[in-house]
Amino acid sequence: MKPLSDPETLAPAEEAAVENPSVGIDQTAGNFTYDVKYEFDAGTGLNENTVRYISSVKKEAQWILDFRLKALKTFESMPLPTHWATKDLENIDFNKIRYYLSQGQKPKRTWEEVPDDIKNTFERLGIPEQERKFLAGVEAQFDSEAAYSNIKDIVAKQGVIFCNSTEALREHPELFRKWFGKVIPTADNKFSALNSAVFSGGSFIYVPPGVKVAQPLQAYFRINAENFGQFERTLIIVDEGAEVTYMEGCTAPKFSTSTLHSAVVELVAMKGAKIQYITVQNWASNVYNLVTKRGLAHEEAEIKWIDCNLGSRLTMKYPGVILKGRKARGEVISIALANDGQHQDTGAKMVHAADETTSTIVSKSISVGQGRATYRGVVHIPKHLKGCKNNTECDALLINTNSRTDTYPAITVRGDQHAVQHEASVSKVSEEQIFYMQQRGLTEGQAMSLSVNGFINDLARQFPMEYSVELKRLIDLEMEGSVG
Amino acid sequence: MSSSTLPATKSIIGAFTAEAFAEHLATHKSAPAWWLDRKRVAYAKFAALPMPSRTDESWRFSNIGTLTLDGFAPTPVSDLKSEIPKPFGLPALTFFNNLLISDRSAKAGLTAKGVIVTTLAEATTQHADLLKAHFMAQPQKLGSEKFASLHTAFVADGAFIYIPKGIELAEPIIITHVATGAGTAVFPHTLVIAEENSKVTVVDHFVSADASAHFACGANDLYAAHGAQLTYVAAQAWSKDTLSFQFNSTVVRRDARVQSLNIHLGARQARHESLSQLQAPGAFSEMLALTVATGTQEFDQRTLQIHQAANTKSDLLYKNALNDSSKTNFSGLIIVDPDAQKTDAYQSNRNLMLSEDAEVNSLPGLEIQANDVRCTHGSTTSRVDPEQLYYLQSRGIHPKTAHQLLVFGFFEEVLNRLENEPLHDALRGLIQSKLGQ
User: Fold this and answer.
1) Could you tell me if A430 lies within 8 Å of chain B, comparing CB atoms?
2) Do A413 and B376 touch (CB under 8 A)?
3) Which run of H or E residues covers position A288?
4) A408 contacts B353? CB cut-off 8 A
5) What is the average per-residue pLDDT within A34-56?
6) By residue range, what is the domain housing residue B57?
7) Which residues contact A356 (CB under 8 A, 6 or more apart)?
8) DSSP of A145-201, one letter per residue?
9) Which chain A residues are within 8 Å of B361, Cβ to Cβ?
10) How far apart are CA A105 and CA A36, in angstroms?
11) pLDDT in tens, A175-200
12) Closest C-alpha among A252, A466, A454 to residue A366
C-alpha cells in the first residue's frame, strides 16, 4: 500500500500523468500504439470471406470453419439487444472493425525471445524488474495471438494443458471439442455469435483429475491497433477434484475511434473441481467491452468469478454459473468503477439446475463524476428442486452529485424449498468520515480515496496480492480530481 | 367482427371494436364535448397500440398468451338481483356493471363539510376543471398504455371524491364496484383529490356477484395537495376467471402523505401498475400490497417510485403468499431524479412459498441520479420457517392452524400499517376467507 503522506499520489490528474514512481502505474501508459507490421490482416469489415480467411490462416479443421460460418449467420440475424440494453451499442460500426490480425509469430517461450516492443509495453505499464521475471510465466496476449508462454512447461509436468485456442483445437480436439461452445451456445447473444465467428487467441486450459495447480495461470491482454477488435476465446476444463486459478488483466491503448472487445469465456468444473477466474479490466475509455462469461459446475464443484471493471467506454458483462450438479456452488464478486463517460453494465447470472446448489453474488460499484454503474442480475431456480440458496448483495457508492447508478435484478423462484434473498443499497461517502480524516491532516482527495478503498476493501482482499495493490493504485488514480 | 377469418392471430382490439365504441359513445350523448373528445383520442390510441410482446421489458415474465380482449362485451345488460357482499359496511357509492345503483353519499353526511362524493358522469359537467386536471392525467410508464387508453375510452362511470382544504374525515368512504354476467367488461374509476391539509380514507372494493369470467380494466387517480393525508385501500376480489387490470397514479405534493394498500385476491390473471410521483419536498408515499395467490392465478405487479424533488420519501412493501401453482411477478423501480437530493426510498418484496409448484419472479430495480440519498431495496423468497412451525406445534397447536397463523403473521406487518382498526379487521377477514378456501 502506498504511504498516505505522499503528496504525489494525490496530485490532480494532469500531474499524475507524468512519471510517478509511488503510484507505480502511469495511467496514460496505455495511450500509445506501436508500428507493428501485420503479416496477417483480414482488413476491416465482416463477411464470409473474412471468416474463411481467419480460418485458413489458422489452418483450422473443417468443423471449426463450419462452426464459424454458422455463427456468422447467427450474428447477422440477431438484433442488438437494445430493448433492454443501452442505446450506445448502436454506435458500434461493425464495418469499421478489423476482425483479425496477427504478427504471424509463433508463441514464444523465453523472455529473450519476446520482442522488444512487448518488453517495452511492460516497461510502460510500470511493472517492476523483479515482477517481470515472475511475469515471464505469463501468457501475454499481444494483438490476436499469444506472444509467449512459459508457465506452460511447469504445469505441463502435472499434465496440465495451457495453450491458445488455435493450438488447443488443432492439437487436442479430443479434449476441447466436447465442451467448446457448449457452455455458451453461439446463439446465446449477438456478441457471443460474433466471437464464435471470428475468435482468435485466448487460453484453453485442461487440468487432469485431482491436479491442484499451485500458482495462478495468468494472461495479459493487449490491443494494439486502431479500430481493431479483439475476440479471445477461452475454455477452461477442470477435471474431477482438480483446482485452478486463472487471472486475466487488460490494458489497451487509447484511440480516437471506438474499439470493440468481445470475448467468450467458458468454464467447465467437473465433479468436485474448483475454478477461480479473476479479471481486472482496464481498457481505454473508448473500448466497447462486451463479454460473455459462463461456467458449468458439476456435482460439488465450485466456480468463482472475481470480476473487476475499471476501464472501457461501455462494459456489458454478466459472469454466470450454471449449477448443474448436486451441491454445486457458484460465486460472483464484482467491483465496478465508472468515471466520466463510462458505463459499467455488469452483474451476474446464477442458474440453479440441481438440488442443494448455492450461489452468492456480491457487487460493489462506484460512480464518479458523470459515470454510470449498472448492476444487472439473474437468479433462476426452476421447478422440482430442493434446498437451493442464493444470496445477493449490491452496494453502490455515488461520489458526485450527478453520478448515476442502476440496479436491475431478476429473480425467479419456483417451489417452496428454497431461500433466496437480494439486498441493495445506494449511498455516498459519509461527510463525517471525510471530516474526521481531514482533521487528521489528510486532504479531501486523500480522504475520499481512502473511503472508496475502504468501501471495496473486503472484496479487494480476495484478489491476489499484486492485483489488489494494483487495484488500490488504479482507484487512487480514478479518484483524483473527483472532489473539489 | 375481426378475428373470425384469422383464428390464429389474436386481435389487438378484441371485442372493443369501432362499432362497440360508437355504441358506447351513443349512450353518453349528454356528456360534454371535451370528455367525448378525450375518449375518442384514447380509443384511437388503444386501437393503434400493439398487444404487449415477449421482448417488452415491462412485460417480462408476464404470461402474454393469456391476455385476450376477445369475448367481452363493453356494454352488457346488468342483472341487479344478486346479493353484494359488504365487508366494509355500507358503501357511499355502488356501481353495478358500470352503472350507479346506490348513492348514499348525502345520507352519510359527507357533503355537509363541502366534501364532494359524486359520480364521474356528474363531475364531467359540475367539476370539469378538476376532472380535466386530474383524470388519467399522469404518464403511463409501466407498460399498459394500451389498456389504460382502453379504460379512458370505455369508462362509463366511477367515483369522484373531493376533500376541501383542512377537512378531516374520520370514517372511510367506501366505493363498491360489482361485475356480474359472463363476458361483462367493467371499467371502474376512482379519482380522489385531497386538498391542502385535508385527511381522508377511501376504500375501493371490487367484487364479482357471480363466478363467471369478467374483464375488469380499472384505474384510480390520487392527488394529495400540500400537507394532505390520503389513505387509499383497494380490495380486489373479482371472480377467479376474471382478467383484471388496475392502474394507479399517485401524485404527492409538499409535506403530503399518501398511503395506498392493495389487496389482491381475485382474478385468473391480474396486472396492477402503480406510479407514485413525489413532486415536492416533504412528500411521502407509502405503497403497500398483499397478494394471496391460489390455483393457477397470476398476479403481475409493476411499480414505479419517482422522486422528482429533494427531501422526499417513499416506502414500498409488497408481500405475496403463493399456493398451488400460482405465480406472482413483482417489478419495481425507484427513480431518483438528478436534483432529488436527500431522497429516502425503500422498496421491499417478500414472497412466501406455500407450494412446490408456485413461481415467483422478482425484479426490484433502482435508477439513482443523485448522490446524497438513502436508497435500499430487498427481495426475499422462502417458505414458512420450519422452526417456527415446530415451536407452535410443540405448544399443542394443530399443524394446519400453526401454518395459517404463520401466514397471517407474514401479512400482519403490512396490515398493521393501517391506522383504521375496523378497516384492518375487514381486510383480515377477506384474506382469511381466501386462505380458508
Assistant:
1) no
2) no
3) strand A287-297
4) no
5) 75
6) 18-383
7) A326, A327, A386, A387, A388
8) EEEE--HHHHHHTTT-EEEEHHHHHHH-HHHHTTTTTTSS-GGGSHHHHHHHHH---
9) 410-412
10) 12
11) 999 999 999 999 999 999 999 999 98
12) A454
B351 touches chain A (CB under 8 A): yes
B10 within domain boundaries: no
Distance from CA of A161 to the nearest CA of B (A): 42
In the block, residue with C-alpha cell 417489478: B331
**Chain B residues within an 8 Å CB radius of A402:** 338, 369-371
* B421 within some domain: no
**A408 in B contact zone (CB under 8 Å):** yes
CB B330 within 8 A of CB B364: yes
Chain A nearest CA to B184, separation (Å): 33
In this structure, are residues A363 and A458 in contact, taking their beta carbons and an 8 Å threshold? no
Position A223: which residue type? I
Report the C-alpha gap between A377 and A361 in whole angstroms: 9
Residues in A touching B364 (Cβ below 8 Å): 407, 409, 422, 424
Residue from the list B60, B366, B369 with its beta carbon closest to the beta carbon of A424: B366
Do A407 and B363 make contact, defined as CB atoms within 8 angstroms?
Answer: no
The ipTM (two decimal places) reads 0.86
Q: Is B398 left (phi over 0), alpha (psi -120 to 50) or beta?
A: beta
Q: Crossing angle of helices A48-57/A62-77, nearest 10°?
A: 150
Retrieve residue A227's grid coordinates: 479500430
What lies within 8 Å, CB to CB, of A157 at 6+ separation is: none
Q: Which residues of A touch B359 (CB under 8 A)?
A: 383, 412-414
Residue A179's alpha-carbon distances to A237, A238, A269, A350, B142, in angstroms, are 8, 11, 11, 20, 41
User: Do the bridges between strand A302-309 and strand A274-282 make them parallel or antiparallel, or are there none, so unpaired?
Assistant: parallel
- With H, G, I as helix, E, B as strand and everything else as coil, classify residue B187: coil
Nearest neighbour of A415 by CB, restricted to B353, B367, B371: B353
Beta carbons of B376 and A396 less than 8 Å apart:
no
A417: nearest CB among B55, B376, B383? B383
Q: Which three cell numbers stand for residue A156?
A: 505441463
Write the DSSP symbol of residue A206: E
Count the alpha carbons within 13 Å of A53 in the hemisphere toward its beta carbon: 16
The total of structural domains in chain B comes to 1
pLDDT band at A109 (very low <50, low <70, confident <90, very high): very low
Please report, rounded to a whole number, the percentage of residues in chain B having pLDDT higher than 70. 95
Residue B235 β-bridge partners? B205, B263
The answer as to whether B223 is a domain residue is yes
Q: Which chain A residues touch B59 with a CB distance below 8 Å?
A: none
Q: Touching check for A425 and chain B: CB below 8 Å? A: yes
Rounded distance between C-alpha atoms, residue B67 and residue B55, angstroms: 15
> At CA A321, angle to CA A317 and CA A325, rounded to 5?
170
Q: Compute the residue count for chain B.
A: 437
Query: Residue B425: inside a domain, yes or no?
Result: no
Integer angstrom CA distances of residue A234 from A217, A253, A424, B60, B268: 13, 22, 32, 32, 47
Domain spans, chain A: 1-30+452-484, 35-451
pTM of the model: 0.87
